[in-house]
Amino acid sequence: MPEDSATKPHRKYEALIASAQQLKRVAMAVAHPCDAVSLESAVEAARLGLIQPILVGPPARIRAAAESAKLDIGALEIVASEHSHESAAKAVLQVRSGRAEALMKGSLHTDELMAAVVARDTGIRTARRISHCFIMDVPGHDSALIITDAAVNIAPDLEAKVDIVQNAIDLAHAMGAAEVRVAILSAMETVNPKVPSTLEAAALCKMADRGQITGALLDGPLALDNAISLDAAKIKNIVSPVAGRANVLVVPDLEAGNMLAKSLSFLAAADAAGIVLGARVPIVLTSRADSLLTRLASCAVAVQVAAARRASANAAIA
Q1: Which among 15, 184, 216, 240 is placed 20 to 30 Å from 250, CA to CA?
Q2: Do the beta carbons of residue 18 and residue 11 sit within 8 Å?
Q3: Domain annotation covers residue 22
Q4: What is the pLDDT of residues 79-92, one digit of tens each?
Q5: Count of alpha carbons within 13 Å of 151, Cβ hemisphere only?
């Protein structure tokens, strides 16, 4: 495993990568990998057998970045483009043409890549709302925590939250969760008409009861403490299969999710792998601030999602 896992061990991510290595290697279009970080992510994920990268960008800049970082990309395919906007469009085209089962953001702005993803005539949108999930490896917590949505949907309404929740449930199943337990978070665990997030939480839970959301146990509203701590749930006398045992946390809005994820990262030494769902393929959004292990974990999640979608498509055909 990469060296940074030795100095800051995160066994959950290592297990995640090991599990993904047992699956079929995924062709992944890497949009504009013109810096060391994005190239390193692609090269190392390829070395570990997770992905087959298709590097989309200006060939001279890609090769210069590889030479500067001492990375061997001689065996990797390069699809030429002139600039970052064209890189995003051509990376998405690799998906539309069936050549790639996943996307990875390189050294371009997230908005550039997502604009190509959601383009009306040339993008890869589906009927499902696009949303982001953090897969948090929190030291001392027994399992990975999925947090959604802390990066894409700013203030989602109830209709959007149905898709956000379903995307997260599908992700948890793709990652091999035996039981998906979703906590709809708010500042309290009782329904209060003056707090809209509690009303939406109650509605989402009833929608799950009626089969409008499937594949998981839902409960909410729940405050963060009684969502992840059995002791806190017992003190509040909350009897629920989710309370104290949640493995998916659905936040009220992007601000709450962003603060939650960053609090775990900076105060609890957690790592935050991330993936965008709801498009035709999983999308890896790498960050220069992420450790190599975190970036590889994001790739591993994309491999698992792609494998789950492939299995679902095969089952539908059969």
Answers
A1: 15
A2: no
A3: yes
A4: 999 999 999 999 99
A5: 25
H helices of the chain, in order, are 4-7, 11-20, 36-47, 59-68, 84-96, 110-118, 158-174, 196-209, 224-228, 230-235, 254-267, 292-317
Please state whether 176 falls in left (phi above 0), alpha (psi between -120 and 50) or beta.
left
- My answer on whether 118 and 149 are in the same domain is no
| Sign, CA torsion 185/189/192/194 | negative
Instruction: Specify whether the CB–CB gap between 176 and 309 falls below 8 A.
Output: no
Counting Cβ atoms within 10 Å, is residue 95 exposed (0-12), middle (13-18) or buried (19+)? buried
d(CA 170, CA 168): 5
Do the domain assignments include residue 252?
yes
What domain range includes position 308? 7-125+279-318
Cis peptide leading into residue 221 (ω within 30°): yes
Look at residue 297 and tell me whether its pLDDT is greater than 70.
Answer: yes
